[in-house]
Design goal:
alpha/beta; Rossmann fold; ProC C-terminal domain-like fold; 52% helix; 15% strand; binds NADP nicotinamide-adenine-dinucleotide phosphate
């Protein structure tokens, strides 16, 4: 299946890199456009795809079009296009109804990926309209499963999901940076400290498949121990409350845009 990316920015690059390294269910070919920065050519060179001169040519030569521009560009980009067979929209806070207005003759699927699709351990939330062509939806789903765990959600849950799984890699990076910084200040090699945090996160992610967050917390923090002291300091500094505020701020931004 030929997949064409309109937009070659951060998320297009993450998905394309994920597919380029996938052993199966990857696109037979990937095409890219940009708005003049040259990122399409650079990305095509990196993943073995092809940059295309115009969005129109890209649509004509693609089986599935990934819409990977900023939400504010939707109307401008859609205006000049022939109808793609299928559109996978990555646009944050952009409901199916708004997408369907712009692509009335296409099967439109709304996606919310996170950055870890680049290493094929991403999460992709997916909402498709009632009555969508099941064959196309299944074909797209198997492509997405090559780079992620896919969750099918109602359209109205996508903003909340975005605040939970789309934004969170940045929050985890903040944790890695803070702990890595302290580790380095305490004498560890900075890169080793960051890697230790990352591997602790990966291990904890695996544990979360089997145990609840509470079980993990209590299994690590024995009474009177160093983790308990750390958790108390974290709570005093706003700990979990800070993440609640981050979640709320993302929701407010999405609903205000
Ligand atoms: N970043 C994330 O983690 C993430 C997560 C989930 C969803 N998303 C969604 O993914 C979409 C893209 O986000 P991003 O972070 O990848 O943005 P980005 O890095 O700014 O990339 C946007 C891309 O769109 C291109 N573009 C703009 N107008 C165009 C046009 N008329 N024709 C063709 N290409 C055009 C830009 O071209 P130039 O290169 O020439 O500027 C750029 O390559 C957004 O809707 C966002 O909500 C992002």
């Amino acid at each position: 299946m030929v997949v064409g990316f309109i937009g070659s920015g951060n998320m297009a690059a993450a998905m394309a890199r994920g597919w380029a390294g996938a052993e199966q269910n990857s696109p037979s070919k990937m095409l890219f456009t940009d708005s003049g920065s040259g990122r399409a050519t650079a990305l095509a060179g990196e993943v073995g795809g092809q940059a295309v001169d115009s969005n129109e040519d890209l649509v004509r030569n693609s089986d599935v079009v990934v819409l990977a521009v900023k939400p504010a560009s939707l109307e401008e980009v859609a205006a000049s296009l022939p109808a793609p067979r299928a559109v996978l929209s990555l646009l944050g806070a952009t409901p199916l109804a708004r997408l369907a207005e712009q692509f009335p003759d296409s099967t439109v699927i709304r996606l919310m990926p996170n950055l870890a699709v680049e290493v094929r351990t991403g999460v992709i939330c997916m909402a498709d309209p009632e009555g969508a062509d099941e064959g196309i939806v299944a074909e797209c789903r198997s492509l997405l499963e090559a780079i992620s765990t896919v969750y099918e959600l109602p359209d109205e849950s996508m903003d909340v999901a975005t605040a939970v799984m789309g934004c969170s890699p940045a929050y985890f990076a903040v944790i890695a940076e803070a702990l890595g910084h302290e580790g380095a200040a305490g004498g560890l090699e900075p890169e080793v400290a960051i890697r230790m945090v990352g591997e602790s996160m990966a291990g904890t992610a695996e544990l979360l498949r089997r145990r609840t967050p509470f079980e993990i917390e209590t299994a690590v923090a024995s009474p009177g121990g160093s983790t308990e002291a750390g958790l108390e300091a974290l709570a005093a500094a706003g700990g979990a409350d800070a993440f609640r505020k981050a979640f709320e701020a993302s929701i407010v931004r999405m609903r205000g845009s």
